[in-house]
Amino acid sequence: MRKSFLFFVLFCIGTCTSVLYAQSKKISGVVMDKDANMPLIGANVIVKGTTNGTITDMDGKYSLSVNASDVVTFSFIGMETKEETVGERTVINVELTSGALKINEVVVTAMGIERKAKSLTYATQSVGGDELTRAKETNLINSLQGKTSGLTISPNSSGAGGSSKLLIRGNKSAQGNNQPLIVIDGMPMSNNSSTQLESEYGGRDGGDALSNLNPDDISSMNVLKGASAAALYGSMAANGVILITTKKGREGAARVDFSSNVTMESHATAPSLQSTYGATVLNDGSLSDNSWGDKITGEAKGANRVDDFFRTGATFINSVSINGGGEKLQGFASYANTYANGIVPTNNFQRHNMTLKETIKLFNNKVTVDGSLNYIIQKGTNRPEGGQYFSPLTGLYTFPANGDFADYKNNYKTFDAVNNYDAQNWYRDVNQDFSANPYWVLNNNKHTEKRDRMMVSGTVKYDITDFLNVQGRLNYDKTADKYDRKVYATTSSVLMNGSNGRYTVNDYNMRQFYGDLLANFNKTFNEWEVNASLGTSFLDYSTSRFDYDTTGELLLPNYFVIAADSKNGVKNYESPRKRLNAVFATAQVGYKGMIYVDVTGRNDWSSTLAFTNNSSYFYPAFGVTALLNEMMPMSEKINLLKLRGSYSIVGNDMPAYITNPLNGFNNGSVSMNNNIPFTEMKPEKLKSLELGFDLGMFDNRFNWDFTFYKSNNTNQYFAMNVPTGTGYSQYYFNAGDIQNAGFETSFSYSHPITSDLTWKGSFNISYNDNEIKSLDDRLDYVNIGSARGYDFRLVKGGSFGDIYAKKLMKDENGVIVTDNNGRPQLSANKEFVGNVNSKWNLGFSNTFNYKDYSLYFLFDGRIGGNTVNATQATLDSYGVSEESANARDNGGVDAGNGTMIDAYKYYSTVGANGGAGDQYVYSATNFRMRELSLGYTFRNLLGVSKNLSINIVGRNLFFIYKDSPNDPEMSMSTSNGYQGIDYFALPSTRSFGFNLKATF
To answer: Of 92, 239, 692, 950, which is most buried, counting CB atoms within 10 Å of its CB?
Structure first.
């Protein structure tokens, strides 16, 4: 009996042991940061509902004993938590992505100060580095289109490497800069060089601070949208801040990351041209200047000229980086090469980015020293320029369909035996100022742009105690731009200012030196949290400029040497400088983790306000946040419910030398100042109110934020003409109030559909209403830009970006009024015809992950606003547009009562320069498929945690809806006055390609 009982017990023990042994097993794998494509050190790996867990090691690796039925949770601060059911797997590799702001996440705010996300009293939005590199662009900021609420991005139509117009919550300054401050690793960067080049050099775009960067160097980007968020940066950041955090060395074995991006581009919005009617054939066999001739009876040799002219563009972006190090020393180095062939022949762009970063920890890790060096070299050849004079598109688009375009392509120049040089071959008189042979423009009006940029920065941080540290930073940013254009003889005399050719050289050098010193205090006293910073900063900005441009004849035809033409060249030298000194302080007090109060103050001293009583100006900011989920009982499904509000006053100084204008130097002589010194000038004052809430639910899988804002920018500066008897031509004064009011909101939801399939959707929408509340009784309006008969005016009661033009006159019945010759009549004065700014902006993105496959697509759009297509107006007047041909086929243009107006009389009046501008103002509302990516990751292909990812990518693939002939989001310039107009600008492009990433 005992033996039987003993046998039974042993049998049970053995059976249970076998069952347990069968169920228990060990899994292992690697946890990666998907955004940075790097292993996560110290990530939590826990069996759900238990205390059985571990953390990842220095290489992101882990191992854990589990059962097949277990669900394993992978988490890391600031990342979205991921759950995996074990099943039959023994290896589970996981990628975590940056999610919405979690309740205890620490984020970087102004001046590099860290704050808990839940304590922020203002709106901010973070974007992971993967959003910038999924489908790369040569200007990385364009990759954010449709992904951030409240940020409007309008790319410049200057091709690869060009700038983009950035607006956060609308235009605020009538004459000043409206673009946000760019801050890299806590230090402000100069963003003025491209604006200077455009305004002073006639639209040339050297690229901005963001377009110069390597996207693969960026770890994350944070948009500080309101004045309250950016108040610590003072007048530099009156228009908001884009904070960029770059990658740096990490502790662990050396790691190499390589990426290669190849995209092919084609034009997407070229105008629709007709091939039915041609130019009149003159007695000598030549063609007339326009296409109002008879129907083409033979072959329309010029019908396909647009497709024959544009080529398939190609962009190649390759990047490699290495980082690693020990406990005391970590390093990061990267190199990126960008090469682009534009869709316009002879246009190419290349850029080299080199980065070195080093982090050293000393004195038992109490002192941390960071140093970085960025060097950028770029060169663009024949980068597209809008307008009629130097654009090859004027000749391309207006060329008659019955002409032989191939002949002018293959023989764009002929030898002139009399003058002994090559001359332009064109069907029109080459001395006319409108068009030229496109291939002559590309090859004999060639221009190049070069840029060398160096950014050096250093940071020393000393942790005095665990709650007190002192930090000092210095940054040096130097940019050298050179522009060179050679205009050969027989180009239009309007462009040459003579018959032998023209030579233009511009050298522009910018230097910015920035430094700050901060003391940071962070301590908890029982139920109270205190975070405070006290600091001072300086910014020294200077430029030097040399311009050379022939105003008369070159001494010898097509001989482009400055020294050989010293008598006829104009030489301008300028060296403006600006200095800004500041002291600032900020403090945040929190109680029981449920309520936080912010107070910020800053005082600036600006050299641009020297010689006035207002060179010193102070501005405060206040904010409060209440976490309702911490104050009262709520459902467990609610992770965060936060109310926030803030109010701030931020100053904005003026351009240099307005308060005390200086004499200049021009062509060997002094040019006298003609502006009255403005000794009473005040800085602009931006008052901003912001209210909003944040909601997180279902383990933060659902996140919703909403913000209402209103800002008023007063003390704008304007100029007015004065009687010549005063000895001056104009004087400056302060006036005006520009208001922006609106809201922005975003939703995101992440849902695990199955154990292998997850979906995340994000939607954002913003609305902004701009109003000119006041100007000045002395001003009827302020004209901030004019082009092709259109004025962009500021008028009291109107909005920034209002368009004024002559209108087509109609009677009370809506019938077009004509004169005795049957031509339509135009209004005597210019009237309001639209506004270039859309009121609504939205984006909707979706991400699907299935095992190692990923699919991402983004739709975005703008609602409201207008775009001006002066290109279409010109093409109509020349009779080359499809619309002008349709009118001829229909017997003319309907006047509104069944009476037909002759098509030539109508379009040569309405479409001509200064014609009926209202007929060419289109709705800017559009929706498009902005971005698409389909990829697969080969995990551990090159070793443990060494993966290879391949993605098929596309951008601007198609429009879902568009009313205008052109792309309404493209811009001819980033300046204030030339937004929303297309005049022979480069059409927008769609791109397809692939992206490869490898980790070694």
So the answer is: 239
